[in-house]
User: Fold this.
Amino acid sequence: MPPIRDLLPYLERIWDSRQLSNHGQVHEEFEQALCEYLGVKYICLFANGTLALMIALKVLNLKGEVITTPFTSPATAQAIYWNNLTPVFADINESDLNINISAIESAITENTCAILPVHIFGIPCDIEAIHKTALNHNLNVVYDAAHCFGVEVDNQSICNFGDLSVLSFHATKVFNCIEGGAIVCHDEKTKKQIDALKNTGFDIDYNLTGYGINAKMNEMQAAFGLCQLKYIDSVIGNRKAADAFYRKLLKDVKGIKLPGNVNSTKLNYSYFPILINPEEFGCNRDEVHDHLKRKNIITRKYFFPLVCDYAEFSIYKTVDLPVAQAMAKNILCIPLFPDISIEQIETVVASIKQLQG
Assistant:
């Protein structure tokens, strides 16, 4: 959270304007600041990332099947479902935990209309291969970039790839507005369409342009985001240092693999996942999770279970997903936050090593 003193001037502005929502001054300032910081041309702010993902699919007027990863939050598949589209799950890579390009190719049918890859843990997908596949099959690409604030590839924002990219500003993310989200698009016409859809279908002149939903970000969220933006570089810098220290301490621990360190990419170090091989390590993931919990070290089994293993989405699982199943069984995200101390990192790693005797 930003210093509360930084928020007070924005609150005074909001109280003076008496405009709490509907594209107020702070909202517009936040949009412009994000465009400049991220290096994107157009951005549309939302109350949360799930609504943004729903509208991203809606604005493309899609019908049919959408290929996505099962190794993600259920929100990814929920957005497909709420658009009356059919999710099709494709397996992932063991190296970066992202959707596998060969699995995408195998999943394409005459009913496929789009690909919805997720940059898991802020690690970019194979954007070139996905772009080539989409062109060959005339498919739209919407990236779930929920974890990707500030991530760059080839010195440009990861959000500049695909037809649209969707960010999440939820409280658990590197950059947050308490709740919030955004769609990055590439032209003014699409931005106007998105802005109307998120405003129950009304355009800037309050003409009803079609069916929409109320998904707008309010002035309070925008103010919180502007405060956060002042500190985001130091936040990411602190996370990077913590990531490097974790890697140093864990690199020689037998049975633990550290996925996702991409040297050619500017990352945001949003999570620190470890993969536990129970045969080599001596304990399985659940035993490690429970051991750390007893020491008041809270970890997360991201992403377990797979989306396709929930009853609501199991009917959409049409092929075996061996890599995703194995990763979900063995993954554990250990504590990483911008002000984590060296001593806390050492405690986490020492507690993990205790299980090996």
